Every structure is written in structure tokens, then in C-alpha cells.
Amino acid sequence: QIQLVESGGGSVQPGGSLRLSCTTSGFSLEYYGMGWFRQAPGKEREQVSCFSGGDGNTYYTNSVKGRFTISKDYAKNTFYLQMNSLRPEDTAVYYCATSLDGCHGYFGSWGQGTQVAVSS
């Protein structure tokens, strides 16, 4: 089975940093879409960032551009989201997910979610 395990969430003050990790098993990440999503209370789930293994493209939602960076380590079957200059509005449950059809395909495998809380 395809499994994704997340780590790295927690509480941080505004301006702080966190790095989320997503370790996968059961498949190779090399040609997949690797996405980070978040869902805050009262809001719909949104895609924060994605790395397309097929063409190397990266995507970021406008609110995190310049602050968040997605990366991957194929040897470890792991991808990451480095989050800098965190803001209270970044508070959400963050999920990693993979797609067989790039960053705009169907994300069928998901991690369990990890809470990120940004407050003073």
C-alpha cells in the first residue's frame, strides 16, 4: 500500500520557522506530483505548494510565495515544506499528498495531517 507519514508540525511564534517532512512508502516519488495542502477552521482545503516530479515545476499559492519552499529527496522517498516567516494566518492542519498525474491530477494518497499553530 502507498503510505505517507508526516512530521514537523508544532507551535511557533510569528516570524518563526518550521520544516514539515513527508516520508512515503510503497512507491517511488520520482514521477509523482508531491503536494502540501492545508485546511484552517471554517475554510476549504487549499493547495499550498506542489512539486512535479515529471517536469520539475514547482507551485506555490500566492500567500506563501517567498516564504515557503518545497523540496524532495528521492533517495529517502521524502519531500519537505520549509516554512519561514510564519504568520498567524498560516495556522492550519497541513497534509502531504501524492498524485500519479502531476500537481493538477488526483491526489489519492494522503498523510494523516499535522497541526501548525502560529501565535504570540
Which SSEs are present, and which pair or pack?
Elements: E1 3-7, E2 10-12, E3 18-25, E4 33-39, E5 46-52, E6 58-60, E7 68-73, E8 78-83, E9 92-99, E10 107-110, E11 114-118
Parallel strand pairs: 2-11
Antiparallel strand pairs: 1-3, 3-8, 4-5, 4-9, 5-6, 7-8, 9-10, 9-11
Summarize this structure briefly.
The protein is 0% helix and 52% strand. It has 120 residues and is mostly beta strands.
Defining traits:
120 residues; mainly beta; 7-stranded mixed beta sheet; 4-stranded antiparallel beta sheet
What do these coordinates show?
With 120 residues, this protein is mainly beta. 0% of the residues lie in helices and 52% in strands. The protein has no helices and eleven strands. The protein has strands at 3-7, 10-12, 18-25, 33-39, 46-52, 58-60, 68-73, 78-83, 92-99, 107-110, 114-118. Strands 2, 4, 5, 6, 9, 10 and 11 form a seven-stranded mixed β-sheet that branches. The chain has a four-stranded antiparallel β-sheet with strand order 1-3-8-7, with no helix packed on it. A hairpin with a 5-residue loop joins β5 (46-52) and β6 (58-60). The protein is globular and about 40 Å long. The mean pLDDT is 94.
- The separation of the N and C termini measures 40 Å
User: Tell me, what's the shape?
Assistant: globular
Order of helices and strands: EEEEEEEEEEE
- Average residue pLDDT: 94
Tally of helical runs: 0
Structural class: mainly beta
Total strand count, please?
Answer: 11
Q: Let me know the largest β-sheet.
A: 7 strands, mixed
Strand residues, percent: over 45%
Bin the helical content. Answer: under 10%
pLDDT below 50 for ≥5 consecutive residues: which ranges? Answer: none
Radius of gyration: 13 Å
